[in-house]
Amino acid sequence: MNVLIISRGYPRKGDPLFGNFEAEQARALQKAGCDVTVLYVDWRPKSPIKRKFGITSFHDGCIKIYGIFLFPFPIKSFPRLSIVLRQKQCSYLYKIIRNKISRPDIIHAHFLFNLPLAAYIGERYSIPVVATEHWSALMDPGNPAYLGIYSRYYKRTKNIISVSKILQKAIMSKCGISSSVIYNIVSEEFFHTSLRKKSSPEISKRKFRFISVGRLVALKHFELIIEAVAHLLSYGFDVELDIAGDGPEKDRLADLITALDVASKVKLLGLLGKEELLSRLKESDMFVLASSQETFGVAFAEALSTGMPVISTLCGGPEEFINDNNGLLVPINNLGALTDAMSYMMRNYEKYNHDIIKNESIEKFSSNVIADKIIKIYNKILS
Question: pTM for the full model?
């Protein structure tokens, strides 16, 4: 089966999050026997690496990737104009590469803002379109004008996939469109990661290391985790915290670490590549993130896939796969509850079975499980 994925982008050295969800799915589908090509229009105002003007092409194994960058354009400020401009760019790119790839049986778009591009090509060349939705804008309690403009394209697909039940409900509530639920994929490397073992039987003699991963933005509430660590230290716990990620809150968080005098215990690691992140996870004991909103929560799923117990707020997506076996759920924006949960997890660390946590994650997030569910949808459409 030939699959054309319309993506945000594709991860490169120095830009590891650009199209990371789409890349994992592309690799899973390729591994399952599909011939996969990825197209993307890079419209971002800023990029962490220097971008080539015009068309970029490269391979990830047998996956063919083609991107185009002409000029940045905000998709929210001028949605109708943005749709037209990006459709033209994507159509031009497809014409250029059309003779280099097999004719797609399916076009699979990721994120609502890419759906107009997929629909434009699909309708022009009579190729059915499937979409996977990840977009947090659909969880917005309001209803931005641009959302209505983009959501009309849902009706021009054969199937909509949501990455969580809470996102499925949001799509139905805001757009009146039903969708199926298939989780995001966790890379195989996380399942092969072994956590360090603890031997000391006395909690008072142990050093525990928490790790937190995500963009340093306000809705992730890293300040609550830092404050919780400060409280735990004052209670006599020997605890450390690594925070992996980058973003606009970096300076504010650094100032807070200094103000609380926890610089020797709390580290801002910056944005980590996959190998660096895996190395840090190996040296950690527990994962914590205090987001106010998550459509799925890939960072939680990745931590669980190593066998690590996790702490999350009641923020949406993670509630669907965090249970008594693998972690704790606490209210949003509640420092006391977060601190208590971290204390509880340290004091009851032996109750969490790493093998059970890992095996449950394999059943939910592994590439072969997710690819099989997606291919079943493809086959139903094409039959």
Answer: 0.91
